[in-house]
Amino acid sequence: MPSDVTRRSFSKTIAACLGAAAITGLPAAAQRRLRIGHTCITWGTFPNASKTLEPALADIARLGYSGFETFPQVLEDWDARGELSALIERYHLPLVAGYCFPNVLDPGERKSALAEVVRLGTIVKKYGGNYLVIQAHNSVRKIPNYDFREHRANIVASLNEYGKAVTDLGLGVGLHQHTGTAVDTQDQVYAVMEAVDTRYMKFAPDVGQLQKAGADAAKVVHDFREITTHMHLKDWSGWDHFGGYCPLGEGKVDIPAILNTLEEANPGANIMIELDPSREAPYTPLETAEISRKYLENLGYTFRAPATIQKGA
User: Fold this and answer.
1) Pick from 262, 248, 245, 258: nearest CA to 296
2) pTM for this one?
């Protein structure tokens, strides 16, 4: 439980969001069409930690976010127990997307990786999700003298195959660039997204991670605005908590510019608030989600009423 000092800081942060939003927000008369959901990773919901899914859904639903994203392996675990439909119904919180990380470098593993992507996409679709986020997996730290240029052709070929297969399932699909993976920096993002077949493979960036990698996240989103169909929306400050990320409005990412770009170019995109989990954090997961919601409300976004949650949940 956070200390009283932390709670006072929490209150000050929310107040700061109000002032900052009034200065930097979108025009007051602009209609907000983007729907804002939240990923479950903030609550520590990983493929091997499915017990945290329900606490995540409870908090996300109570704050009125429009839907949730998690790892499809978590969905498979709940599905195998026959409990996922009841869980989703309990909180009246739609599944939006699943997040996976297939091999994109080794052509010898592409067939098995493709089968995994199809399996995970199928479970997402079964429970009403509309999107599969694909991270370019392979920890490049384990590859001596990793040279992106040597692997670019295999990355593009893999993403094209996975994108076509997921599109055939009836889901949207996009590349999620990520720190320490095969596609990380701004130059790598442009090199891949300008080469893939964007009829199938769209762009699903993490704007906090773009900023962390030294990119101008708002510029990258603007340049790929027509194919940005899914996004992890988080801020970046470089502090000691949450992997250097922070709730919206506390960091360096130009959140209003990013949202304004998508409001104009692609208002049907999925927007998922996210913050990495952190030990001894100054905020609970619920508090981080509340700070971000307050910030977005002061940009003109609205959220569902908590009354939509089943009584007794």
Assistant:
1) 248
2) 0.89
